[in-house]
Amino acid sequence: MSGIAHHLVKRGIDATRENYRSASFAQDGDNKPFGHPHAVAAALILTSVLWFFALSAVQYVYGGVVATLTMIETPTATAFKVDPAESDEADAPLLDGDEKKSANTEPELFYVKTKPITSKIRTTIKHLVAEAGPWARFRGLQVALAYHFIHHILLQLLTALFGGAMISQSFAAVVTAVVLCRLQMLWTHVVISTPSEKKWYRRFPTIDAGKKVILPTAVWALAQQATIYVPITLFVIFDLEGYFRNPTVFNELSPMQQKSVMLASFAVMMSGIAIAVLMVFPANVVLKRVQASLLPEENDSIVPFDRTFAGKVQPQVVGGTGVVSMLDAWKTFDWAARFRLVKLYAKIFAIQVSATVFFVLFAVFQVRMINGDYILY
User: For a pLDDT cut of 90, what percent of the chain falls above it?
Assistant: First the structure.
């Protein structure tokens, strides 16, 4: 989504710059040039910066914090005990004293499943603020910044070490993710737990806990790389590069050949979407739930969370592994939770698109205010 939004803004800025360049050299009746290139540049840069921070905030708060809580929350059920009362209705069966006493000695239990906190973005944020303060929506931000900074440095070093080939870059990305798996798990623990008096760098998971998330981290990283390089590979196999570099070549094709090229382009696009839905989505859920199962006992979760994963996990103190398996992590993530997560991603997409459209229109408005209506001519 961030790539799509970046492309839309870039196209809008390029079009505005091109229109402005053609208009800025025009002259009015007195042969005097008009236009304020420095003011336009400053306005576009400021708007782009605001757009970047707005989308980053949406992605972090909703796509990071809220989505992670949605992945691990276990809705609770409240039990109500109802004592049966004697019926005073006229058509009630006639019972003697002993039968009435026997009939009224067994109370009925009703279980009402409470609505998940993460069922709505608003209720999730409201709960976080109530439990951890007004900045709780940005919880774990320091860990995230440290993770991305170290990830960038390490990825550049490994890419230079392994070479610039496509397969080498994928391998470097997977190795980087595995090396930083403890830091990534620390972020998950900070996000899903109640506020702690310890500084985040004093809450690092143990090395033993880190070993248990190596496999799900590697699977998640491989799935991410597949969304990038599988479409690129298909793009090369179908020999589509020439048509995108020189559109006139496409126009010279026969109608049947044009349909084939369009079908191949559609297949390339759908391959990335299919991998994201069928591989990245479950891999991310499994990774977060495996990380959550390793949350230390002294930390309480900020949303209802079944540490036993429906009885699949036994603590190490009683001879268990203390961690949920990858298969059980996915199987215990029921369809209702999956639907909530998909709905959340759809909302995030809509918010990011709306924000991008707003900032593009705002940029055009700023240019018109600075240069007048000439920008449209």
Answer: 61
